[in-house]
Design brief:
GO terms for molecular function: aspartate-ammonia ligase activity; ATP binding; catalytic activity, acting on a protein; transferase activity. It holds the Pfam family AsnA. By secondary structure, the protein is an alpha+beta fold. The protein has a single domain, classed as BirA Bifunctional Protein, domain 2, CATH 3.30.930. It contains 9 helices and 11 strands. The longest helix has 25 residues.
């Protein structure tokens, strides 16, 4: 129960039905705005893939995917996706997208090893997006301009929802601040990565923390990243300050994806060279996949943020330990 905190005096301004209506408004508006900002086309995406395809996201490398056998295919095993980070890149090439064009999709996942709290659930829903770029665009300037476009979609959506509901005041600053994970460690060496994020979010309101995945000067990582999708020098997280819980709230993780060289380097650093023989990774090493930038944006996260909810279970239907359900009920918080 120490991971769940409902602030004293918290009360949702919307009942269940009103909340469901507001969730639809948030999702519809933001989805359209994101597509316009990044020139994206919506596509359908898989809920499960075969382990042998190499298309599942390995996240930090320790999470166990939910898997099942299919009777029709002689009990062939399939895995519920953790995210669509690799599948999107494969799809861009297969569907015939051109440079400057991209796709987005609804991604639903089950992360059975997730430690749940106010922000985390074993059910994950997000918009996964991916866009083709050129070799020359694989740089920090491209990353920053794309982050600014995503942030603008977030900021415009907050303004829209604040006009719909008079209890909502705007939190997001006009501009997002860029800071590297190493700069944060240098600035706050005595703090944990999460504590550094909280400091930065309170100071700036909205930050994009760059270069996540590789070891810092201390030898520790700011956070884990799979070695075969983001380039660890050209990625990061959009994090905003959330006054309701007085915390840093991650809304999006994104980055320029690995090319042949960085994939090989990061697989070697992670001791995962065996993955080089998987179909997706092999195709990338052979230069058969487009160069891309992409990311994921939490659907429940932004609904929680815009509607000023204290717990993610107020905007998504998942499963929770009984003590969490009892605690929420005692606090007058309705979990869907």
């Amino acid at each position: 129960m120490e991971n769940i905190v409902i602030p004293d005096g918290y009360e949702s301004a919307l009942d269940i039905k009103q909340t469901e209506v507001a969730i639809k408004q948030v999702k519809d508006f933001f989805e359209r705005e994101l597509a316009v900002q990044l020139n994206l086309t919506r596509v359908s995406a898989p809920l499960f893939v075969t382990p042998e395809s190499g298309l599942n996201d390995n996240l930090n490398g320790t999470e166990r995917p939910v898997s099942f056998g299919v009777k029709e295919q002689n009990e062939t095993r399939f895995e519920i996706v953790h995210s669509l980070a690799k599948w999107k890149r494969h799809a861009l090439g297969r569907y015939g997208f051109n440079q400057g064009e991209g796709l987005y999709t609804d991604m639903n996942a089950i992360r059975r090893d997730e430690d749940t709290d106010n922000l985390h659930s074993i059910f994950v829903d997000q918009w996964d997006w991916e866009k083709i770029i050129s070799k020359q665009e694989r740089n920090i300037e491209t990353l920053k301009e794309t982050v600014k476009s995503v942030y603008e979609a977030l900021r415009v959506t907050e303004k829209y929802i604040s006009q719909k509901y008079d209890y909502i005041e705007t939190y997001l600053p006009e501009e997002i601040t860029f800071i590297s994970s190493q700069e944060l460690e240098d600035k706050y060496p005595e703090l944990t990565p999460k504590e550094r994020e909280n400091k930065a979010a309170r100071e700036y309101g909205a930050v994009f923390i760059t270069q996540i995945g590789g070891p810092l000067k201390s030898g520790e990582k700011h956070d884990g990243r799979a070695p075969d999708y983001d380039d660890w020098n050209l990625n990061g997280d959009i994090i905003v300050y959330y006054p309701i819980l007085d915390i840093a709230l991650e809304l999006s993780s994104m980055g320029i994806r690995v090319d042949e060289e960085t994939l090989k380097e990061q697989l070697e650093m992670s001791g995962c060279m065996d993955r080089a023989q998987l179909p997706f990774q092999k195709a990338l090493l052979e230069g058969k996949l487009p160069l891309t930038i992409g990311g994921g944006i939490g659907q429940s996260r932004i609904c929680m943020f815009y509607l000023r909810k204290a717990h993610i279970g107020e905007v998504q239907s998942s499963v929770w330990p009984q003590e969490v359900l009892d605690y929420a009920q005692d606090k007058g918080v309705v979990l869907l």
